[in-house]
Each structure stands twice: as structure tokens, then as C-alpha cells.
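As a next step, we paired sequence with C-alpha cells, yielding the entry below.
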Amino acid sequence: MGSNLTNQNSIQEETKSVLNSVNACYHSVQNLLSSSLLSKHLKIKIYRTIILPVVLYGCENWSLTLREVRRLRVSENRVLGRIFGPKCDEVTEEWRKLYNEKLNDLYCSPNIVRGMKSRRMRWARHVANMGGGRGVVWVLVGKPEGKRPLGRPRCRWEDNIKMDLQGVGCGGMDWIELAQDGDRWRAFVYAVMNFRVP
């Protein structure tokens, strides 16, 4: 499916490839996003239909690290900065770029990280319902045999699911059992989507 897998469980190459594709999309619509003839609402629609799907393709199986989260947020804030443009300061009457917090308030849709987390939670329900015999379950949840290398263990996909649940107040619960109840799991997906992340 076009994903880059490594034997070190690192998605750095994958996110680098995705961000290169996002940059190509961004530069192809850059003039539209900075045009004064288009409304902000239309520019956001362009972002959500052309650029955002490129980023979110295949993100369900990523185990994000803080470094990758920052890179994705920087990429999104660059696009939002182009959409909303600079603002004139009322006191100094100088034009300046908007801060990230202001961009998030103006965008008023879930940011890219929350979108990825909610997609991962939706996929987790499918994984939980597959049963232990499927290859997908073994890859995402399985525990490989052998000796672990020295140092801190890498963050696994299942660890991300547990952290997402912990963020909405359900830490310590078995996520596979929780995923069996569809209505309750959908509520968790909605909570993860609307949970503020820095």
C-alpha cells in the first residue's frame, strides 16, 4: 500500500515520505491558499480535500513519537498560516504572522494529530474484532520472541492506543474488551477526536 516499513519499528522514513508528498501538494495549491479572491472557508475546504488526505493515508498503523507529532503539526501550521495570512497588530499597526494557538482557534476543526488518533482508534476496533489468528493482529499487537536490545523500548502501536485511552480517562483498562462494545468505543473515538493536544 505504499508504506515504508523498517525492522526498527520506526516511522521516520514513512513520515518523511508523507511530508514530501504534502509539500508537493501544498506548493501546487499555494497560490489558491494565499489568494485574496477566495474565502477562508473555501481555502479550508481545499486544505481538507487536497492536502489532508495525503497526510492521513495509512496513518492508522503508525506509532507516533513526539518528534513525528511536532513535524506533522509544523506542516499543518504552515498551511494554516498561509490560509489565514498575517494579521495587523492593533497597538503597533505592524503586520505579523499568527501564533500557533491563534491558528488552532481560527481553524476550529480537530487538528491533524487528533484526526490521526481518532482514525487509529477506529482501526483498533477492527483489529480487536479480527481475532488472534490474523496477520494484522500479530503485527500490531503481537509480542516478538527473542532478546530485546538495551535501552528504552520503542513505542508500539498498542502503546499508542493505551495512551489515547488514558488521555480520555480510561487508562489501565483492556482496550480489546472495550472495543467489543461498539457504542462505547465510538464514544471513545469521539472523545479522542475532541481531546486537546498541545
Notes: The radius of gyration is 19 Å.
